Amino acid sequence: MKRIAFARIAQETNALSPVATTLHDFEGSHYLEGEDLLRAADRGPEVEGFFKRAELAGFATAARARKAEIEPVPILSAWASSGGPLSKECFEALEERVVEGLRKAGPIDGMYFCLHGAMGAAGIADPESRLLRSVRAVIGNVPLVVSHDLHGNLTRARVEAADAIVAYQTNPHRDHARIGEKAGRIAIGTVLGELRPTMAWRTLPMILGGGKTIDFLAPMRAVFKRMRRAEKKSEALAASTFMVHPWNDDPALGWSTVAITDGDHAAAERLADELAEMCWERRHLQPPEFPSAEEAISEARAAGVRRRLGCVTMADASDVVTAGAPGDSTHLLRALLEHGSGLLTYAAVRDPSAIATLWPQQVGDHVALSIGGTLDPARSRPLPVAGKIAGRFERHGFGKTIVLAVEHMRIVITDGPSMVMRPSFYTDVGLSLWKADIVVVKNFFPFLMFFLPYNRKTIFVRTHGTTDFDAAFQLRFDGPMHPRDTVDDWRARDHQRRGLASASSAGTFAQV
Ligand SMILES: [Zn+2]
After folding, report:
1. CB 171 within 8 Å of CB 266
2. I want to staple 382 with a disulfide (CB 3.0 to 4.6 A). Which of 30, 65, 125, 373 is the partner?
3. Are strands 438-441 and 311-316 parallel, antiparallel or unpaired?
């Protein structure tokens, strides 16, 4: 029997958010160890309230297929909502626990480590590569296979620390389990001596491009098709394209591509290069421009029939909680209150201090207070409202929740992350989506799938916040960065970042 350890530490960081991610955020969302983790991976739900089956269930499937030869060894699984950087204490506690778990597990023959790929931690550069080095120090020179979200950022340190790195091949993401299974098969094959994975990669000085970056739509469809074809025809064990989380603060941020073959390094180099060229060709296709809140509200008002048949879904693109924003922005709320009269609107805001004020009250009580604008006071100001408490709930993942009826609005105030991505965020507190005219979400892509039955029109709204695309331009980079700067050629930076050329010719480059 060969023993393969498996673990997850996953969070996506928005470096611009002032709201630190703490151990409490992980333990309150998803945290499992040992037998509990093995059971969750085997039978589900893997991440309660969010995923029935995700990467670790996929890994468990791969291990079951070889159960006479492979024993999966559960270490820990910790997941928190996207948010600000992990506090140093939080990062070090998780690191310590995974290292300790591996020590206690005894000798192992390989490991699968599920990481988001865009995690940040206060005062620690590239924290995920540090995790890889820390586990490597315990497991020694056995196969270490890593999976990332395709919004992860690949670095030289990670490529050097891992034997194989694979990423989702769908955006919006719907292949978590498939990727875990793929990583599992590579780990198992390598441990059993059937595979000899060799990995090649390229990195581009580019943080935005590829239009809407949806895997089944142009212009990225061809790139995803190429990767799947390479895997199907056994040209590669795995092919990945990382489109990064642009609000990560690694100076060497940028899209990258990875190809893993079974022993044929030249073929891996060729495929990684081909994919990088395909991405670079698509760099000028930028994400669409979004209307202002006032424009969006009049568009919604004009969509009369569509509102009657379902609802208009408004994505608060400047405060996308699932991309790490604080979720306390009041810009869209204020505009909806001022300009949306007569339109029944559901909206959300995270405000722990408002919850502290409202929690002792009863349903039906009339209240007047300010909401929002407290977690990130530099980007939006508190909004004074008067209304009636229409609901009071304690919910997994969101924490204490108050529904406040204010004129034509139903505002769902949460103590925890206001992660509005699924209809259940509203329906679980008694708000029927069939009755609403406008429903606000704080998500970029997955809501499009989840809201399909109700949604008759989607409007992305730009106000001002940590998930504005150009907000990423204030971060520090290791040189000119597309599309903020003009970049003529990607190869010189790729060579420096991969350690093939001296960095001295690059100098440093920053714009604040
Ligand atoms: Zn992602």
Report:
1. no
2. 373
3. parallel
